[in-house]
Amino acid sequence: MTATDSIDVGADAASSPSLGDVQFTAPSGTRYIYEGDQVSFNASGSNPVWSSSVPEDNINGLVGNNVNGRFNSIGQRTVVARYDNGHGGFVSKNVTVNV
């Protein structure tokens, strides 16, 4: 006995996720981020959800193209902007930040 399954796959161009590069701006235009500094992050495209590899960072769960984060601990972290299109597709971009 042979059983077969099939699945139809189609692309919905109208709901394709888009997200530009993730960029951030350190205070006073410096290239250093110090513990407690507020940092601005931005991504062009659809409103992403932001997260950090450090759970205590206050950027986790923020939504929008422009958000501000404050890092209250020293160390390297990866900040991610992720956009889900609601149809199973997603795109994410990240940037590494050293505090």
CATH class: Mainly Beta
CATH fold name, please? Immunoglobulin-like
Intertermini distance:
62 Å
Structural class, judged by helices and strands?
Answer: mainly beta
Strand order of the largest sheet: 1-2-4
What characterizes the major β-sheet?
Answer: 3 strands, antiparallel
Q: Give the number of helices.
A: 0
Q: How much beta, percentage-wise?
A: 35-45%
Q: What's the count of strands?
A: 6
Residue-averaged pLDDT, rounded? Answer: 75
Shape: elongated
Named CATH architecture? Sandwich
Estimate percent helicity. Answer: under 10%
Gyration radius, to the nearest Å? 18 Å
How many structural domains in the coordinates?
A: 1
Give start-end ranges of low-pLDDT stretches.
1-14
- The topology string of helices and strands comes to EEEEEE
Topology:
Layout: E1 19-25, E2 38-45, E3 49-52, E4 66-70, E5 76-84, E6 90-98
Antiparallel strand pairs: 1-2, 2-4, 3-5, 5-6
